[in-house]
Target: Metabotropic glutamate receptor 7
Amino acid sequence: FDSYFMSRTLENNRRNVWFAEYWEENFNCKLMSSSKKDDSSRKCTGQERIGIDSKYEQEGKVQFVIDAVYAMAHALHNMQRDLCPDMSGICLEMELAGGKKLLKYIRSVSFNGEWTDEGVLLRPIKCLQPSELQGCRTSE
Model:
């Protein structure tokens, strides 16, 4: 996440509607006349770099968001594999499964990976069948 976020610039991050406001706040500068910053702020150049021209530290709860995304992805993958074994994509049974069934799959996911400081998983995650109620575990 850190590598990705610190590579964001005004040019390559157009999809995040709050990024310009973050940029102004992070670099204490003003992008345009419609800015929320006062007129005494210096003008942003666009050449500023996160983590180089400003202090950057990842919010401590980012890993919880990453874990939640992984859990949902593994749950959906396991559900699709069980309910649609001979198909790629979503079959009718999965489409009609409902929230309670999906919740069962989410609860059956677990992972305990070893991560580097850069957020790289050292050991791969091995997904088992949800019916075994072991979910996804790191392989030894």
